[in-house]
């Protein structure tokens, strides 16, 4: 398990979160919960990172595509609906 100062982490996370677009906020939330879940070795969230190369204006650029899979059961479906209603 990774040790870190929880208060400093929370402050940094919230500062970044407040400056993000709604789409980026959702991504940060998912990645945070995925990370926390992997640290506890119990996670219903998996993240797959795929490296691709794209040609942009004649230059090959490396891009990453993230596929996020969330296993949904009855309890998490209720939590998801509650989170949607909060926003």
Approximate shape: extended
Order of helices and strands: HHEEH
Strand order of the largest sheet: 1-2
Our count of helices gives 3
Q: Which range does the strand content fall in?
A: 25-35%
The first-to-last residue Cα distance is 32 Å
Helical residue percent? 40-55%
How many strands in all?
2
Q: What's the Cα radius of gyration?
A: 16 Å
Query: Unreliable runs, pLDDT <50, ≥5 residues?
Result: none
The averaged pLDDT comes out at: 72
Largest pleated sheet? 2 strands, antiparallel
Number of spatially distinct domains: 1
Structural class: alpha+beta
Give your account of this protein's structure.
- The radius of gyration is 16 Å and the shape is extended.
- The model has no long low-confidence stretch (mean pLDDT 72).
- Strand 1 and strand 2 form a beta hairpin.
- The two termini are 32 Å apart.
- It has one domain (6-86).
- Strands 1-2 form a two-stranded antiparallel ribbon.
- 51% of the residues lie in helices and 28% in strands.
- The chain has 87 residues and is an alpha+beta fold.
Strands, helices and their partners?
Layout: H1 6-18, H2 22-39, E1 45-56, E2 59-70, H3 74-86
Antiparallel strand pairs: 1-2
């Amino acid at each position: 398990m990774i040790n870190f100062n929880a208060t400093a982490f929370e402050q940094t996370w919230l500062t970044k979160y407040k400056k993000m677009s709604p789409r980026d906020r959702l991504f940060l939330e998912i990645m945070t919960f995925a990370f926390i879940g992997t640290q506890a070795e119990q996670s219903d969230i998996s993240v797959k990172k795929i490296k691709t190369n794209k040609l942009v204006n004649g230059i090959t650029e490396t891009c990453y595509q993230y596929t996020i899979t969330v296993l949904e059961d009855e309890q998490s479906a209720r939590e998801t609906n509650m989170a949607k209603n909060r926003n």
